[in-house]
Structures are given as C-alpha cells and as structure tokens.
Amino acid sequence: MTPAQPDGIVDVPSTMPVRPRTPIPLGPPIAAASGAAAVLSLIPLPAMLRLLLVAPMLIGGLGTALTWPLRLPSHLRLALFPALGLAAPIGVATGLLWLGRYSPTAVTLALATVCLLSGGWGLRRRAPARTRTELRRRWRLARPRRRVRRLWSSTRFRALTGLLALWAVGLVLASGADVGLFGLMFTPGGLVMATALVGTVIVFVWCVITDDTLVATSAIAATIVIIRFPVSLLTEVPIYAWTYKHIGLVDFVGDTGSLPPSFVDIYTRWPGFFAGAAWFSAASGTDPVDVAHWFAPVMHVLLAAAIWGLARALGLSVRAGLIAVMCAELVNWVGQDYYAPQSVALVLAVTVIALFAGSRTQTAAAYFAIPLMGVIAVGHQLTPVWVLGCGGLLTLLNRVRPIWLIAACGGVWLAYILPRLSSVMKYGLFTGSNPLDNAKTNIGGATGDSVARSVTEAVDRGVAFAVWFSAAAAFVYLWRRGNPDWALPVVAFSPILLLAGQSYGGEAIFRVFLYSLVGCSILVGAALAEVLPGGGDPDTAKRRPRLRTVLVTGAIGVVAVGAFHGYYSGWAYNVITRSQVTLSQQMLAEAEPSTVIVRMAPAGWPERPSGDYVRIAEANPGYDRPLVFLRNSLSRGFPTDEDIDFLNNLGRFAGGGFYMVLPRQMSIYSDYFGYFRSGAIESLVERLDEEPNWRRDRSDPDTIVFRYEHVPTESEPW
User: Fold this and answer.
1) What would the pLDDT profile of 580-593 be if each residue is shown by its tens digit?
2) Which residues contact 274 (CB under 8 A, 6 or more apart)?
3) Average pLDDT score over the chain
4) 128-137, 214-223, 303-312, 614-623 — which is least confidently predicted?
5) Of these four, 129, 354, 470, 536, which has the most CB atoms within 10 Å of its CB?
C-alpha cells in the first residue's frame, strides 16, 4: 500500500525527466574577491591590514582561480590550493628576477590579474543572482551555528579547551625560565606543556573511537598550537643562527631586486624560496625577521593539509586520514620547519605526490604536478630527487595517469639541474654507496658529548625507530588482513633510497626521516583505523577492546613526548635575542668590504641578518667562516701563546676590521656537544682582554665582540 502524499507534494509523471540540480561553482566570486583584495594591498596601509588583504589570494584565491572549472574532491582542494598559493608567487618572482625586471608590485598585479580574469570569466557564465542564491543555500546546508553549538556542548571539546588552558599556564612558566642542557621540556613550564600534549593525544583517540571528526580536527589544530607556537611566543626573534643566512638573502633581493653572484652565496643557484619570500615581505609590508618568526606554525598547518590530501588520495578513510595527520605532527622533531627552502619544498612535494596518487580519478588536476615540480626544482636540491623516485615507483605500480607524467616532471627537473651541475658537483653528486656512511650526521663532539646530548640522541633515534618500525608493522598487519596496497610502503620508505648515494653534507639522515614520516604516518593511520574500535564497524564497536585502545594511546603519547623533547632539546643555545640581531645588523651596515667577522660555533650569532653581507662577501666570500684552528685548539685545552700569535697575525693582515664574536650561547653549545674544554672560553676572553692589540669593540648582555687594532711596538714602528 502506497502512503498518501502530504499536501503540496505532487507526483512527477515517470515520462517527465527530472533534471538534476547542478551546483553553481563558487570559485569565480572567491577568485575575483581575493584578486581585488590583493590589488588593495598595494595601497600604503598598515602591515597587518596589507597581510590580511594579500593572504586570501595565497590561501585559496589562486587555487580557486586556476581550478574552479574542475570538479576536485575536497581533500585535494585542501592540499592543492595552498600549494598553488605558495608556488605561483615563487614562480613569477623568480622569473622576473632572471629577466632583471623584478618588482613586488608587478608580481602582485600578475597574480591578482589571474584571479580577476578567472573570476570575471566565471561570473559572466553564471548570473550574479544565481550565485548569491547558491551562497545562501550552501550556508543553510552548512548550518554553522548548529555546528558551533554542538562543538561547545561536546565534552571532548571542553576537555580540549581545558588542555589548551593548561598549555597556556606552562607557556607562562616557561617564559624566562632558566633552560639547561636538557632543553625546554625539562623545565616546570615544559613539563606542563608536555602534559597538555599527552592529554590532547588522549582526547584525539577518544574522538577517533567515537567518530567525532570535528573535535578530532580541533585536536590536530591544538597539537600544532602546543608543539609549534612556543617557538614564536617564547622568543623575540627567530631561533637558529643559520636562519639568518636566509633572512639576509631575502633582504638583499627585496632591497636590490637582484641576486648576488653565486660565488657569494650558493643559494642563488636555487633562488625560488628567496624570491617568493622577498615578494611576500614587500607585499605584506612585513620585515623578513618577523615573517621568519611565525613561519614554522604556518608551515605545519599547510603540511597537515597536504598530508591529509595525500592520505585521502591513497584511499584512506576519513578517520584513517585524521590519524595520519596527527601522527605526522606528533613525531616531527627534526626542526626543518624554519624559514628555509626545505619547508616550502616539503609542502609542495607532498602535494605533488598526492596528485600522483589521485591521478587515476583526477587526471586533469594531476597536470598541476608539472609546474609544481618546476617550483620545487627552483627552490631545493634534494627534494625533487625524492619526489621523482617516489613518483617513478608509483608509476610502476600503475597508480599514475598519464604514465608519461613522471617523465615530464623529470624533464623539468633535468632542464633546471643540468646547467647547474657544476654547483652540485662541487659538494659531491655521489658521496658513496654505503648507506651507513651516508647516514652519519655532521654533528659531533670533540672532547666528548654531554649526558644531555647522549640522552637526546637516544630519544631522537628511539622516535625514528618507532616511526619506521610502526610503519613496517602496520603494513604487515594490513597485508595479513588482505589489504596490501603497495603504494603505502612506497611513499613511506622511498626516502631511504636517498642514502644509497648521497650524504647531503651529513644531513641526509635528517631529510630521510623528514620525508619518510609523511608516508609512515599514513601507513600507521591506515592500520590504527582498523585496530581502534569504532569507525562504523559493528564488531569492533561491540567488543570495545579497551586494553588495545589504552596501549595504542600510551604508545602514541610516549613517542609524542620524545619528539617534543627532541624538538626543544637545543633551546638553550638555539635561542637568539633581539639585541644580538640588531648588533649583527649594525656591524654589517658599518663594515668595510674587507672586514672579517669570525666565530667558533654555529650558535648565538645571526651571521647574515641583512643584505649588507653581500657587499662584504663580494670582497671576501669567506669573511665569516669559523676559526677551525682555534676551535680545535680549545678542544684540547686552553688558548696557548701560539694561538694568540696566530690571531694577531690574522688581524694584522686583514684589509679592514677583524672581529671575533663570542656569544653567550657558544659556551652552552660547547658544553652540550663537548667542543671545548671546560673554562676554555672564559680563558680566551681573559687572554684577549690582556692583549694590547685587542679591545672590546661593542657588546651586549649576551655577546662580546673583540676587534683587532694593531699597536706598534719598539721593533715595529709602523
């Protein structure tokens, strides 16, 4: 018996075809609005306002403008849009640099024009009234108010909010705390923040087993806040002395609109990141130092979006993808997220692999891998090798369409690298076929590592082993359950192939772990989605294996705390003060071209914080190389008369000023790695204070700068 139709509902005769409702793409208005906002950013406005005007174009405007005619799944849009927003400015700015026509205004107008033209063309095809109707319809379907109310009423979200409050307490306690050799985590504030991190892991697993996707996503965001935000909130300026080598080149490009000679800076052979960063600082009105200060948290958000897109492109479920993103964020202790080409290249690389993995169903979108590969090649040396190796293996597994796509990407890379092969050969194209030798790091002590360094090294290795072992065990588990997708281990373990021929200056093992944690986290996510209860499986939901859940949660929490310690283990010697940056900038601005500025350890002193370094390096490319002879001497004992005589000779024959910089962090660095004998630095300061040819030129509470000034003797009237 057919139930009666309610009033107002009329049966449609079967002979009348029902036209399906085609959703109106919202890409054109979004693209047009972001392009218009970018044009407004050209007006001299406060930096924060200009940043807010240009950001929409980078986050989604360019991606929308280039892809709105395509029907892309949401996970691919989430990964591809920010990647295109990163790649487009880099490509345009680099091209204008090479042509000698670089201008931040020209780059902004070029990008905004793409958005405006694409948006205008799309709006002409769709009536504005229909677009407004579609916007209202989607707003009603999204029900944002109901979602917000449901979120605030969730016990899990309230627990997450409490954990963030606990983290804030730890942040306050850590501010100004005396950090020892064991790092930030071994302070009261660090322990409180680590506790908040473990609690966030518990809430996340709770969300996974109850299929609470919204709060699980919030837990991932909270994890990024807990782990990455202290880097920006507890410091005045960016950490790591080597960060300022990148800041100086960005500053030079922004000031001159050109690149320095390659003999001055090897980075000019791969200028993509620096061209894009110089444009962003000019377009947003933000100093490169300030951009670098908040760079790491932003890059982790973009990396999380890219990993989500890759996980879903590889066929993982929503909850498996969430677990993968969470695991990748928790175990990343490497510290390669600072203001550097590697950070941007990793986000683009994961996006390209996601395009490869999803190319069988999204072939049109996969073609974006070719220009993205070009931007990766322009910006970084090692990352394209991994992408091509991984893509080649995926092609052999019949996962890439068209099959010539990887060849096209390889051709783009070869076209760029072959003219620069001499620069690559200078540092060794092939450093040996022994993976164990290539896996050795470039960090080592001279007189013996400290206990803190030994503990941190053991923890870091334990985290790396846990990641690789868990990924291998996850694949075996999936294989035994009849789900052996070989694309997953290819993405996870293909970076290890890099160790077959390259040590990358002692950094290859760090890059291998960085690249592999993406695929390993995806493998672990795929397995844990089946191991943990819930997920719509009535059998597992009925059994509720509590012991298994507790064990998984405990294991993730332990690894997360270990990675948290590894990430902040060098806090005492990696943190740089604002006064040190200002002091270094002043020295470079006032220095003569023949000036020499030396130090003994890569800690505490921002070496090239402004573009003025180029003027000095053009006269002497090695003007700021470390004093290796003195470092080796102090590792054996205290400064000798021969050491002081050698320093005097170096200062005497220097054409301009000769400076020795002794930052406070150098002593901590020495104690941590065992570079110098205890008391050797203090003894050196005493000897230089007693020498008539040396005087304290300038200093601050964290730095002593000695300058050589020759005092003639009776036998040396000159």
Assistant:
1) 999 999 999 988 88
2) 246, 249, 250, 253, 259, 267, 341
3) 87
4) 128-137
5) 354
* 137 or 31: which leads in pLDDT: 31
Q: How far apart are the first and last CA of the chain?
A: 117
Q: Look at the alpha carbons of 331, 215, 312, 301 in this order and tell me if their dihedral is positive or negative.
A: negative
Per-residue confidence (pLDDT) for residue 105, from 0 to 100: 96
Q: Is the pLDDT of residue 627 over 90?
A: no
Angle in degrees, 0-180, between the axes of helices 74-99 and 295-313, rounded to the nearest 10: 130
Total residue count of the chain as it appears in this document? 718
Taking 80 as the threshold, does the pLDDT of residue 449 lie above it? Answer: no
For Cα atoms 577, 231, 443, give the angle at the middle one, nearest 5 degrees. Answer: 80
Distance CA 665, CA 581 (A): 14
pLDDT tens per residue across span 346-388: 999 999 999 999 999 999 999 999 999 999 999 998 999 999 9
**Contacting residues for 206 by C-beta, under 8 A, at least 6 apart:** 156, 212
Could you count the other beta carbons within 10 Å of the beta carbon of residue 339? 26
Distance CA 675, CA 630 (A): 11
Share of the chain above pLDDT 70, in %: 86
DSSP string, 277-313: HHHHHHHHT--HHHHHHTHHHHHHHHHHHHHHHHHHH
With contact defined as beta carbons under 8 Å apart, do 351 and 376 qualify? Answer: no
Q: What's the pLDDT band for 508 if we cut at 50, 70, 90? A: confident
Strands (E), 496-621: 596-598
CA dihedral 472, 473, 477, 479 (to 10 degrees): 20
CB 51: neighbour CB atoms within 10 A? 17
The amino acid occupying position 19 is R
Sorted by sequence, the CB contacts under 8 Å of residue 627 that are 6+ apart come out as 598, 599, 600, 660
Give dist(CA 87, CA 62) in Å, integer: 10
| Local confidence band at 628 (pLDDT 50, 70, 90 cut-offs) | confident
Residue 556 has which token pair?
A: 């993730």
Ordered DSSP codes for 66-94: HHTTS---HHHHHHHHHHHHHHHHHHHHH
Per the listing, tokens 């799309």 go with: 122
Nearest 10 degrees: Cα torsion 311, 314, 315, 318 = 10
Give, to the nearest 10 degrees, the angle between helix 74-99 and helix 272-284: 100
pLDDT, tens digit, 9 for 90 and up, residues 672-695: 888 888 888 888 888 888 888 888
Copy the structure tokens of residue 330.
């928790």
What is the pTM (predicted TM-score) of this model?
Answer: 0.90
Amino acid at position 435, single letter = P
**Which among 275, 243, 276 has a CA at the least distance from the CA of 258?**
275
Residue type, 589: A
Residue type present at position 161 = T
578: tokens are 């604002």
Report the C-alpha gap between 311 and 597 in whole angstroms: 48
Indicate the domain borders of the chain. Answer: 31-127, 150-241+537-573, 302-442+463-533, 576-708
Give the CATH fold of the 576-708 domain. Rossmann fold (3.40.50)
- CB of 459 closer than 8 Å to CB of 565: yes
Residue type, 54: V
Comparing CA positions, the residue from 493, 451, 486, 463 lying closest to residue 562 is: 463
Taking the C-alpha atoms of residue 624 and residue 626, their distance in angstroms, rounded to an integer, is: 6
Give me the half-sphere count of Cα atoms (radius 13 Å) on the Cβ side of residue 405.
33
